[in-house]
Amino acid sequence: MQKAKAHVLAWSTVSDGDKFWSALKKANAQLPPGAAWKLAVASKDGAKAVNVIAHDSVDGVREFFETHAGAYATTEYFEADAANAVGLVR
Fold first, then answer.
1. In the predicted model, is pLDDT for residue 1 greater than 50?
2. How far apart are CA 72 and CA 38, in angstroms?
3. Does residue 9 contact residue 54 with C-beta atoms inside 8 Å?
4. SS3 sequence, the chain?
5. What distances in angstroms separate CA 78 from CA 39, 46, 66, one per listed residue?
6. Has residue 2 got a pLDDT over 60?
7. CB of 77 within 8 A of CB of 8?
8. CB neighbours of residue 46 within 10 Å
9. What's the Cα-to-Cα distance from 75 to each of 8, 17, 67, 78, 89, rounded to whole Å?
10. What is the pLDDT of residues 76-85, one digit of tens each?
11. In angstroms, rounded to a whole number, what is the distance separating the alpha carbons of residues 66 and 70?
């Protein structure tokens, strides 16, 4: 039986918005097999960003995200509480 995908939140404080988003746009084409990018959004001032990626693990998302955009932001990673989420497609 295959393990269900976790929805991983990547909450970033962005230091260089242009490079951060450019790196993530390139990274989107290189997602690990089975991963799916669900949401990418920034605060209006560009200082904060939230990305939601469905993947097998928080560690897998952390490794992927840091490889591509880690130099341009400080990011925290959390597994979403899907049972209490509103609007999160499962």
1. no
2. 21
3. no
4. CCCCCEEEEEEEEECCHHHHHHHHHHHHCCCCCCCEEEEEEECCCCCEEEEEEEECCHHHHHHHHHHHHHHHEEEEEEECCHHHCCCCCC
5. 14, 21, 14
6. no
7. yes
8. 13
9. 12, 13, 12, 10, 23
10. 999 999 888 8
11. 4
Distance CA 42, CA 30 (A): 21
Beta bridge partners of 8: 53, 79
The four Cα atoms 14, 18, 19, 24 give a dihedral, to 10 degrees, of 80
CB atoms under 10 Å from CB of 25, counted, come to 11
Q: Which two tokens stand for residue 37?
A: 């990018």
**Separation CA 4–CA 90 (nearest Å):** 10
- Residue 10, strand partner residues: 51, 77
Task: Specify the pairing of strand 6-14 against strand 48-55.
Answer: antiparallel
> pLDDT tens digits for 14-32?
999 999 999 999 999 999 8
For residue 62, the one-letter residue type is R
